[in-house]
Predict the structure of IS5 family transposase.
Amino acid sequence: MKVTLGRKAYPSDLTDEQWELLEPLIPQPSLQGRKPFVSRREVVNAILYVLRSGCPWRMLPHEFPAWQSVYYNFHRWEREGVWDRILQTLRMRMRTRQGREEEPSAAIIDSQSIKTSAVRGPEKGYDVGKKTWGRKRHAFVDTQGNLLAVKVTGAQASDHQGGTALLEPLKNALPRLQLIWGDSHYGGTFLTWVKETLGWTIETIHAVTLPKRGLLVPEGEEVDWDALFPTGLRPQPKRWIIERSFSWIVRWRRLCRDHEGLPQSSEAFIKLSASYRMLTTLVPAFPSRPF
């Protein structure tokens, strides 16, 4: 874990090996105008510090570049699609490492309602079902929980509306995709729209089939479900994968609530959190050593 930053490292900093993998995906400074005086690596480290600590931009430690420069580059790279490119590249590498094709043939869709902090911005509402004022994160992951896409809307938006906004831009982005798993909110007209517009099939997962489909039970063996799940909660087949992905997201302090004024900023931070998780899996900060 060699780190050459010229300062004491924070836990969120990239190691030399991680930066070597990430550096080609970060745009080079423009050759026009004045000579750049801000390190791209330090800008990324500062953004990761905000993501992990949850601090406001203006409270960045002074060891990092000026918060205005970090904030500017974060939004510029979001507009230029840099976070999307990083997410896609790392996801392909992750799937290859897992012994799978680079592009998935099946995926899972779901949403998560999250409270917002006292910040200004559009796309806010009240989720009657979850009794939550804030925003809703519509996520799309592969069968390993790796993020494919995310869309942030007001919490009042239905899963049908959010799912349409989420999937429509992916029409030609996932050439191998054929099957999507989702709960009952993604049935009905949404199922028909996906089939006619995108050519994909949605399989709806119902809770009544959980014991038979969720766990493998040897033939003839009785299972005491109440003893196995004393709280009454039982893992739903395929859907538990995306629930785990949501749990990965909210582990980051910046994402345990929605602190962003713009939903696009929330989406960028979610993509960055998913990318960082895959990056640390591909290149661990403390790799295991053989005995």
User: Anything to note?
Assistant: The first helix runs from residue 16 to 22. The two ends are 18 Å apart (CA to CA).
